Amino acid sequence: MPNHLVGETSPYLLQHADNPVDWHAWNAETLRLAREQDKPILLSIGYSACHWCHVMAHESFEDEAVAALMNEHFINIKVDREERPDLDQIYQNAHQLLLQRGGGWPLTLFLSPDGTPFYSGTYFPKQARYGLPGFPGLLQNIAKTFKEKRGEIAAQSQQVIAALAAWQPQTSADHFELDATPITLAVQQLKHDFDSVHGGFGGAPKFLHPAELDLLLRQAHAQHDAEARHSSLYSLQQMAAGGLYDQLGGGFCRYSVDARWDIPHFEKMLYDNGLLLGLYCDAWLCSGDPLFARVVQQTADWVMREMQSPRGGYYASLDADSEHEEGKFYVWQRDEIRELLSAEEYALVEPYYGLDSAPNFENHAWHLRVTQPLDELAPQLHLSEDQASARLAEAKAKLFAARELRVRPARDEKILGSWNGLMIAGMAKAARIFGREDWLRSAQQAMDFVRSTLWQNGTLFATHKDGKTHLNAYLDDHAFLLDAALELLQAEYRSADMSFAVLLANALLERFEDRVNGGFFFTSHDHETLIQRNKTGQDNATPSGNGIAAQGLLRLGVLTGDARYAEAAERCLKLFFPAMQQTASQFSSLCAALESALQPPSLLVLCGTENETAAWRAAVSANYLPALMVIALRGDETGLPQPLDKPRTSKTTAWLCRGTQCLPPISGLDELLAELQ
Q: Which letter does DSSP use for residue 194 in this model?
């Protein structure tokens, strides 16, 4: 019989709806049940594309005997971390406090009936191994401890609650002015942590760090810092050459299990790819390296091919597994490739993808990564680079077509506001820089879906699936969609996007800002009461909501002339500034906002005939100018905010403002480009 998850929309929860475990969703009724029965809560947090979540499910949650233990002793709650990032943040923090190490997924916690955690872990095997206890024995020990040591559990719970509260940023009693110290410190820390051999930061497992790479690129440009430039561009080159990147279909996996970017956990997340689209656009502008342009094109094509719903919104993720095996969709046997290709094609592909070396994956299989650059291989095979490139493209097309016949990984088709914001921003930026109308329409369709579906009666909701829109939206939903609206406005001005940007910014100020201390809570003022209310400035897999909110508000203030937005951003920066001075690189998105506060973004307004203003915008967009906002107007817009409402002239005119200084109108493109340089 199905359990209580059968009516949910989350694909992750529905994966568990037929478990013999009596799973409940997190809601007031379930929490009341725990209190009434005075039972501890077993809280399991994961997501649909998570490999180890699947492993624990198959081993334990589908097992009748294990389920019987869970049902006897606990109220069992399943949470999709993508739908409830508020709960995930809180209980990941609690896990960190209880075990003094980072968490992950699946996250397994045992809570008192009031929701306070007293024991935590991640994956537990059914039988003891990997230095971990067997899950059935653990369940019995936890149930016994809960009955016999309630006083100790209650005391520890209070310590956890106090420690969680102490983690929140505290306002400084000292008066100070914002300065660039954290930015300088962050760049120093990132250069120190840079892996000069493989790119990226630190060792295995190796994550993407898009906010950090973005800050390095910005500062390389602003300070003419060659070392920062190399750290960022080399990392992006190595990531794109590795198995982290899908060499045949485009798009990046979530992280690499090794330091060399060889073997990923194979799930593909929308948020990673939205962030990396914009970052690879910037890398292309900074370097002109065709690799970066190729990554943008392949990733954007993958998004439109596999991740966009017919109604416009972008889906959440692709699973790591297919046919119950991680990576099975992506990996190859060498003979399989040899049979698909001509002898000439295989002679190129074998050394290019490392098929002439030992297998790099399980079951004597190969996961494709670039091991020898094409410009080195071409002369060895007596080919020009163009001939080698054409031959490689033909081979990849054959391999891709063969791979398309395999059983595909499952797709999580819920549509999340925050992750759609990241992808809309990435697609809009790519469309503007590469002049791709199809990418722009894709981004606009996604934003139109969000506006018509997730925004209801003046309130933003977090998720939509199967015709159901629900859950209060979080800080990240508002901040990331505000950033997306600002990117769309620069690709093509639409009054609907401007109006939505203002609505989102006003909601940030009214429903999320800490009006006393500054900064933005992760949950709105009318959200359900939980054991912690987070206000986080550090970046994670996604940039900090506070960092992106501050960046967006500063840019919107320039577009609208409304000082409230910049003032709220400054209050946010002042709250986090003391922490930024200690561990600056963890606050890279707030450092980028700080840069904008110290040197306000420039605004370029182009007015004239549509074709000519488009040509001017394309010429400007061919340069890496991260502190510049560009708005091109056709001349028939109404209701423009004052900074955009320029007088119309008979020929194309540029209006450029830097901070508090506006230059005289510029009527020649060469003059404009010279001024921007």
A: B
Kindly state whether residues 52 and 95 are assigned to the same domain.
Answer: yes
Domain boundary residue, one of 564, 598, 632: 598
- What's the structural domain count of the chain? 4
- Same domain (yes/no): 423, 394: no
Residues for the chain: how many in total?
677
**Peptide bond connecting 601 to the previous residue in cis, omega within 30 degrees of 0:** no
Residue 660 belongs to a domain with what CATH number? 3.40.30
CATH value at residue 191: 1.50.10.10
Sign of CA dihedral 173, 177, 178, 182: negative
Q: Which two tokens stand for residue 190?
A: 């990132």
d(CA 35, CA 29): 10
Q: Are residues 115 and 81 in the same domain?
A: yes
For residue 653 the two structure tokens come to: 């005119």
For 214, residues 6+ apart whose C-beta sits below 8 A from its C-beta are 232, 278, 279, 282, 588, 589, 592
Residues 548/486, Cβ–Cβ less than 8 Å = no
- Of the given ranges (172-181, 197-206, 303-312, 444-453), which has the lowest mean pLDDT? 172-181
pLDDT at 367: 98
Q: What angle do CA 616, 620, 623 make, to 5 degrees?
A: 155
Which helix (H) or strand (E) segment holds residue 459: the answer is strand 459-465
Cα separation, 542 vs 551, in Å, equals 15
CA distance 14 to 274: 26
How far is CA 244 from each of CA 94, 231, 261, 354, 369, rounded to the nearest angstrom?
30, 18, 6, 15, 8
Same domain, 594 and 449: yes
**CATH classification of the domain holding 97:** 3.40.30.10
Tell me the CB-side half-sphere exposure of residue 485, using CA atoms within 13 A: 32
Instruction: Single out the residue of 87, 126, 116 nearest to residue 103, CA to CA.
Output: 87
**4 lies in some domain:** no
Here the tokens at position 198 are 């493989």
pLDDT at 567: 97
Task: For tokens 């948020």, name the residue.
Answer: 271
Domain membership of residue 175 (yes or no) is no
pLDDT at 610: 82
User: 433 and 571, same structural domain?
Assistant: yes
Same domain? For 372 and 442 the reply is no
* DSSP notation for 559-598: HH--HHHHHHHHHHHHHHHHHHTTSGGGGHHHHHHHHHHH
Average pLDDT over residues 7-18: 95
**Domain final position from 405, 422, 446:** 405
Q: In terms of domains, do 131 and 199 share one?
A: no
Tell whether 338 and 456 lie within a shared domain: no
pLDDT digits (tens, 9 = 90+) for 388-433: 999 999 999 999 999 999 999 999 999 999 999 999 999 999 999 9
Interatomic CA distance for residues 382 and 351, integer angstroms: 15
pTM exceeds 0.90 for this model: yes
Q: How many helices (H) and strands (E) does the chain have?
A: 25, 20
The helix-helix angle for 210-223 and 588-598 (nearest 10°) equals 30
Domain that holds residue 612: 602-676
d(CA 143, CA 271): 38
Largest CA distance in the chain: 84
Query: What is d(CA 202, CA 56) in angstroms, rounded to the nearest whole number?
Result: 29
Rounded to an integer, the average pLDDT of 62-90 is: 97
pLDDT at 416: 98
Q: Measure Cα distances from 346 to 58, 249, 351, 371, 397 in Å.
A: 39, 19, 9, 15, 13
